[in-house]
Amino acid sequence: MKRLLFIGLLTALVLNASAQVSIPKEAPQLEFALQLKVTLGEAFGINNTQHGRRTVIPITGGTFEGPQLKGTIINGGADYQLANADGRTELEAIYCIKTDDGVYIHVRNRGIIANSKDAEGRPSFYFRAAPQFEAPADSKYGWLNNSLFVCAPEFSQDFKGIVLNVWRVK
Predict the structure, then answer these.
(1) Whose CB among 3, 46, 128, 145 lies 3.0–4.6 Å from 54's, allowing a Cys bridge?
(2) What is the pTM of this model?
(3) pLDDT tens profile 22-57
(4) pLDDT tens digit string along 141-170?
């Protein structure tokens, strides 16, 4: 009986707390951090795995530039994608960049690509990711370690690869 009473009180508290949620007055702001122009190799796929279709896209190089850093993308990384039958793809790109002053930074970028339909039934496309940076803590790029980032693609006919615009969440 005590247990039922406790569960009932706990449920009432949770329901009451959720009814009191207010919308925050201020949303986090975004600050442009850098643009990556990533060159890609020939993709290959593994069909019908237990998790879906696996695609691997080699990262062969490229450049990046932002207000506080500039440099090249190192050959040897890859974008690992896992697609399901519903048009949703999870991606994880792992690679390194090198600043113009010789500092190496590791990048792990996880995201979602979704081809679906909006509320009115029209086709919609969503592609966002959240890169994480590992820079030497004692370098002038140490600030990359202590922020969250989001990125979105920019598609260009003039560039053979992918362009990613990256913002720091303030």
Answers:
(1) 46
(2) 0.83
(3) 888 899 999 999 999 999 999 999 998 999 999 999
(4) 999 999 999 999 998 888 889 999 999 999
Report the C-alpha gap between 5 and 3 in whole angstroms: 5
CA separation for the pair 97, 99 (Å, rounded): 7
Distances (CA, A) of 71 to 54, 61, 76, 103: 30, 11, 16, 9
**Three-class secondary structure assignment of the chain:** CHHHHHHHHHHHHHHHHHHCCCCCCCCCCEEEEEEEEEEECCCEEEEEECCEEEEEEEEEEEEEEECCEEEEECCCEEEEEEECCCCEEEEEEEEEEEECCCCEEEEEEEEEEEEEECCCCCEEEEEEEEEEEECCCCCCCHHHHHCEEEEEEECCCCCCCEEEEEEEEC
